Amino acid sequence: xxxxxxxxxxxxxxxxTLRHSASSQVVEIRGKFFMIDCxxxxxxxxxxxxxxxxxxxxxFISHLHGDHCFGLIGLISTFGMLGxxxxxxxxxxxxxxxxxxxxxxxxxxxxxxxxxxxxxDTSQQSVIYEDRSMTIEAIPLEHRIPCCGYLFREKPTLxxxxxxxxxxxxxxxxxxxxxxxxxxxxxxxxxxxPHEKLTNPSAPPRSYA
Length: 209
Prior knowledge:
With 209 residues, this protein is α+β, with helices and mostly antiparallel strands. The chain is 22% helix and 32% strand. The protein is built from six helices and 14 strands. The strands form four sheets. The chain has a six-stranded mixed beta sheet with strand order 1-2-3-4-5-6, with helices on one face. The radius of gyration is 22 Å and the shape is elongated. The model has no long low-confidence stretch (mean pLDDT 95).
């Protein structure tokens, strides 16, 4: 099974302590790394958890309280010093965009990678990211200011083929994908073999909010 891991980098409130850093998490899904919030101290916590800086492809900010985003410009700067060239995608409430642009222009004017800002509407639930294997949804939350949570969800995968049954019924390789998609198999003698007998169910999709 492909990895699905969550790294809690910080879970404290606005006042950091020696035991609790400001809010930040990293979700690893099938080789892709996504950060949720980026409070102060996030870079040190990345070091402690051995999550590679260059692996993070997108950052999701839930709301614009400082303990959830004060570490963002520092991390952007570090990415530049590490020679990052891959684009960085940032999903956050729209009011962050002009402030972030100003900070990047002041502190990181010569980045060799692009930053793409995606404004998130915190008032409605919607899919804000999708690829072949997963989706990410923004979910409105009640807070003192506009705020949303993020739901990371795998897409269902096809069932696993049973090699023993494929060999037993002499099913050609060209038909395996059709069987995974739900097709039955009819033998030369006219016997219909249901695809459920030729496959094992896939693992149930995983999710994290």
